[in-house]
Amino acid sequence: xxxxTTDIPKxxxxxxxxxxxxLVNRFLxxxxxxxxxxxxxxxxxxxxxxxxxxxxxxxxLPDANGYKLCQExxxxxxxxxxxxxxxxxxxxKIKILAAGADDFMxxxxxxxxxxxxxxxxxxxxxxxQPNQAQRLVFKQLAINPEGREVTLNDxxxxxxxxxxxxxxxxxxxxxxxxxxxxxxxxxxxCDYVGDGRVVDVHIGQLRKKMESDSSTPEFIKTVRGYxxxxxxxxxxxx
Length: 238
What we know:
- The protein is of the alpha/beta class.
- It has 2 domains: about 5-120, Rossmann fold; about 130-230, Winged helix-like DNA-binding domain superfamily/Winged helix DNA-binding domain (Arc Repressor Mutant, subunit A, Orthogonal Bundle).
- Helices cover about 35% and strands about 20% of the residues.
- The chain has helices at about 20-30, 40-50, 65-75, 90-100, 110-120, 160-170, 180-190, 200-210, and strands spanning about 10-15, 35, 55-60, 80-85, 105, 135-140, 140-145, 150, 155, 175-180, 220-225, 225-230.
- The strands form 3 sheets. Strands 2-1-3-4-5 form a 5-stranded parallel sheet, sandwiched between helices.
- Strand 11 and strand 12 (about 225-230) form a beta hairpin.
- Helix 6 (about 160-170) packs across helix 8.
- About 30% of the residues are buried.
């Protein structure tokens, strides 16, 4: 008996190259429910109706900025985003990760590789578990996992899904140091196969949004030669 379609993960492929869309669709449709779009406008309309678990998104669409499109999708749901790009320089990789993308692949790519990446991403747990849903308050900083909202000095912070997950995880263990591999395992999931520098990129983005001076952070401290930890404000008892 075939599985009900509701149990099959939904993936949206967005690429202006018909041959790429067709190839990926045909290959992944053996396991997943696939829909596709050729531009940014069509992608957002389809995104609202389809509600995919994962979006495979071309970084360079003719009518849309990949950075803004990725952030727009992730501001609406906890969707996973895998970016496809023809650029291979360091600055572009950092920009892709900073947009909130969960992973990226450089064109040309093999179908076997995209299958492995997709499977690893879909195994990731992106939702905060009910037993972790307690609101965290550290003086002027408040983290609400149920609404996935963060306020600092009573002003909301616009965080990506991954930035929220990193902050919530670190703040749930105040004062405890975590290595980069540990953070990847806890936040990204043990099956993450992408670039390990993703941790540093997202920590950097978090600091820009929540620290008055990101070069001397108050909340997220670097543990030299190891990783990061959340430092509660002075006077707060762990």
